Amino acid sequence: MRPLRPLLAAVLALALLGGCTAGADEPAPSPAKADLQTKVPAELEEYYGQDVAWEECGSNLECADVTVPLDYDAPDGEDITIAVKRLHSSRDGQRVGSLLINPGGPGSSGTSLVDSATALFSEDLRAAYDVVGFDPRGTGDSTRVDCVSDFELDRIRGAQYEPETPAGLEAYAADTDFIAEGCVANSGDLVTEVDTASAARDMDILRHLLGEPELDYLGYSYGTYLGATYAELFPGHVGRLVLDGAMDPSLGSHETVLGQARGFEQALRAYVQDCLGGEACPLSGSVDDGVAQVQTLLQVTEDTPLPTADGRELTAPLAFSGMITPLYESRTWFFLSQALDQAMNDGDGSLLLYLADLMAGRAEDGTYPDGSTEANWAINCADFGSTGDPEIWARQAEELREASPTFGDMLAYGDLLCADWPGDPAGSRGPLTAAGAAPIMVVGTTGDPATPYEGSVALADQLESGFLVTYDGEGHTAYGRSNECVAAAVDAFLIDGVKPEDGLVC
What we know:
By secondary structure, this protein is α/β, with parallel strands linked by helices.
């Protein structure tokens, strides 16, 4: 998930493990294994039956491009490619199968996540599985969405709008129209075909080409929605699915962003409390005082953007992005302290700009090599389009400000981006049940700002076979960055099919 109004891509892959233990019950029952040769529609046989040319691309790594139809409703038409990277099991004798992974976004690269596997995933998991990452359609090294130049992306990311005024709304709409027109001009029909359901169908082709009768999968953040969508479409091919940091698919866009607003405000207060109790904190007084100081800094950047080392100015949207980036991971809070200290005491926005660029995938040379921001725009719009009008958005903006006095204003009017997106939305808001699927683990973090805990509770309840594991802590998602309790529960389920005790809290 991402904050919408500043038009930012928002996923931050983070690692590190902690400590605790998990209890376990009997192995989870599962339906009879699906036949690998399950009949597929005749028009898709060439895709399910293609030969994959794997090539070595690093130590114990192989890479390949897989061909899929651009439009599943017209599979005789244009093809696109999906980039795939596989880290082979470290101990072939213990191999369970292939574990497909997705880092979220939407728009983030699954092949890049494979490169972090040794830091994120336990040794036991890497022994049991070939870890397989892919760049979903429209992203990374797959056939990619392209909308605007790097120069224009810099400008848009830093632009300040006042959509509450007629002139401000017109300026904001002009840029969102510019984005949509650029996506169509540069990417053609791809911009309407990067929806989540199509990506889930791509995953089923990958499952088959990997030689797996069932899909074992670990998805983070937006990757939980992708995984749940797969389970809805292919319940008989669900193996062991773990959905970490879940989105509630039944919520509309405003309800989703409203949850994020509350989540980031809560995360900011948790950070301020921790900062004030430590050393070298740039804030002072009570938690309320510290939050007010952060709000003052945001107002300063809105009125007078701060200079930075690379010559760009730190505007309020960029300051906002730089502030929320370390709020995704409590172990990076010290970066926020350093950035706030530099901005508040030296009048220098360089570190906050660096953090904002990290979130948006901007390289030091000014390029955006992973294309995650533009893919994020396209996938969100292709999935659900836009709802509401300026009058409704103005009322919703007030709700966001009330929920998050610090960040709410930056999260408002996000639906405007998709208002004139080409094509009809491919998805619809509503619960996903995946009736008939094998047990699905949902992991939720109580202090998750980007995908609030309530979303994980809701998804686990909606899924017919869903069950919830709770991490009581701060930060976005849990497996690979929380503690041994979470790691043990996820590993036992993925490796041995063993469900943890009901209602496990780590």
